């Protein structure tokens, strides 16, 4: 297999506008052939989504979801035109997000929204736990780094695995990318709010993720 260099990744990113991680994956999947990697990104809709990311998205919709009388969610998703805002695929995506938020209770839309102070506090806690575990001092930073990366994905909506994916692999960001490719417009998940009765109080634990899957037939 051909080696994927940093320069290759940089060149592909400049040509497609896709993220570093997506560029690296594309090059790995295509044996470092940059032209094939470009095709790979286009087929996945990643390249077109990246190019549309700077376009203004001020239209959209706010969708709500109420799970019985226990959990309520509202999500705002933006697009470029009112026409797409009425598109069934766009509205369907927004509805999927409300179910995702209800089931997985994310705290932020993306990792860019996590305050630096929150990240540093989490790092400090995990660093202390890692030191108490008796692990070699040299590997502790890598252990903590891996734990923080995993934690960040779990609390950010776009990085969470879609609860209805039967294979448990597709994340919400992938759904968003597919929607952008399908509608031809920039689409952004702007914000969400989630309320749960008795939140913060001691209560009965439910497997709500499984409940959502059963209701959706997934």
List key phrases describing it:
218 residues; alpha+beta; Helicase, Ruva Protein, domain 3; GTP Cyclohydrolase I, Chain A, domain 1; 3 strands
Could you walk me through the main structural features you see in this protein, from its secondary elements to its overall organization?
With 218 residues, the chain is α+β, with helices and mostly antiparallel strands. It folds into three domains: 6-52, Orthogonal Bundle (Helicase, Ruva Protein, domain 3), CATH 1.10.8.10; 59-110 and 156-216, 2-Layer Sandwich (Tetrahydropterin Synthase, Chain A), CATH 3.30.479.20; 115-153, GTP Cyclohydrolase I, Chain A, domain 1 (Orthogonal Bundle). Helix content is 52%, strand content 12%. It has ten helices and three strands, in the order H-H-H-H-E-E-H-H-H-H-H-E-H. The chain has helices at 6-16, 20-29, 34-44, 46-52, 82-85, 88-104, 116-132, 140-155, 172-183, 208-216; strands at residues 59-67, 71-79, 188-196. It has a three-stranded antiparallel β-sheet with strand order 1-2-3. Strand 1 (59-67) and strand 2 (71-79) form a beta hairpin. Helix 1 (6-16) packs across helix 2 (20-29), helix 2 (20-29) crosses helix 3 (34-44) and helix 4 crosses helix 9. It is flat. The protein starts with 5 loop residues before the first helix and ends with a helix. The model has no long low-confidence stretch (mean pLDDT 86).
